What we know:
Layout: H1 17-50, H2 54-82, H3 84-103, H4 108-136, H5 142-171, H6 174-194, H7 213-236, H8 241-263, H9 277-307, H10 312-340, H11 343-361, H12 369-396, H13 403-435, H14 450-481, H15 486-491
Helix pairs in contact: 1-2, 1-4, 1-5, 1-6, 2-3, 2-4, 2-7, 2-13, 3-4, 3-6, 4-5, 4-13, 5-10, 5-12, 7-8, 7-13, 9-10, 9-12, 9-13, 9-14, 10-12, 11-12, 11-14, 13-14
Amino acid sequence: MRIATGPVPRITRSTNYKWWVFASVALGLYLTVTDQSGVNIALPRIAQHFGADLPAVQWIALGFTLSTSVMFMPVGRLSDIFGRTQVFMLGFAVFVAAALLGGSAVAFPVLIAAKILQGVGVAGIEANGMAMVADIFPEKERGKAIGLYMSIIGAGAVGGPVIGGTLVSLLGWRSIFAVSAGVGVVALALAAVVLRRGVSVENRQPAGTNFDWTGAGLSAIVLICFLLSITNGHKLGWYSPAIMAGFGIAAAALALFIWWEGKASAPMLDLSFFRSKVFTLGVSARFLSFLGGSAVYFLMPFYLVQGLDFEPSKAGLLMVPGSACIAFWGPFSGRLSDRIGTRWLTVAGMALCSIGMLMFARLDVDSSAWEIVVSIIVEGTGIGLFSSPNTSAIMTAIDSRKFSVASAFLNLVRTSAGLSGIAIFTAIVVFTMASQGFEPDLSGVSESGGNDVRLVFIAGMSRAFVVGAAVMVAAMVVSLMRPENPSVLDEG
């Protein structure tokens, strides 16, 4: 069975076909990353347009993240059953339709619904992008390919706020959705031409494979209850009945999910993945790295704008070197891991991240821009050295026919770790401020209170970064414990 009918384009017969596949996937990835960060920049204007308060506006980002997280695993499993290309392109179609709906929304609930729907489309795109890249490149080049894949994420993180901010300033917030829809159509057309062989049909699961609806439902309950509880714990109180009930339901559903996946004939998540030390320890290190790293990207903007009273434009520029380092070092570490292996690069990356976190912990109200930039460069370099080799090791440890569900699981680890980290580090800062008699809310940093409130906020931020450094050290130890995947060196 063929993916598309009609004559086979010259592109698919090219010796550089893998790079055409990469270009198609990279365009989709860049679009989703820039769209997410661009919409975040537009949130104040959206709130003003609809007259919505901050808790309501936060649901634009939270609803998107929840739907993406919940759909990652089911979409990954469907991709392995029915084909990656089909689900990848369907994800683009949903993304474009949701962008058009959001851009034309006349009621705030419609906009939230559009972002939730867009999250479903992004799950289809991101769950398959890494899988197709890992599959189309030979194993001896997999580190290089994944490194370039990570560089696209870094480039999108740099470009998103710039592109989004420019569009909002010149054309209004609706223009972000319009541009996303337009670029999405171009990306969908490119995928229709390029993704015709070698990345989907040959790696389908055997005919007749069933979809695990029970596992999908249980995983959705786990994620919804856990993510809602951990993102609202510091507001409602960690020991409040609602939060405790949420964590309790999540734990019970997780136990049922593990039991069911162990007995299901066609499980959504193949628990045999975790028999591999390379996979298990690699995933654990990935979770810890995103858990610790979330402190930087969440707390630093508050420190720069509210703590040091920098203009948002200057604060944004100071954050750029971190993303640029990820984009630069990702391909380098990926290529190097193809030659020397993955373990020591991941250890070195987490060591640098630990140092960077301790440098952040030393920042105060008198820190110069150069001190901040150097800290961000050290941390960004560490992430760049770690991410590509770690991901390459994980993907090499599993059967290529299950790349989509594995890729989806890795994306789920990223989003859940990021949200968990934000909740934990916010709680540390809030507790520090409340213990000194200040309003336990990060917005209090920008309100009246003189220099004292800034000093207390920065003290709490320093404690958070010390905890972040400890998390990065834990990730370094886990990476050190991970055995080298022998096939990487054998192929090199």
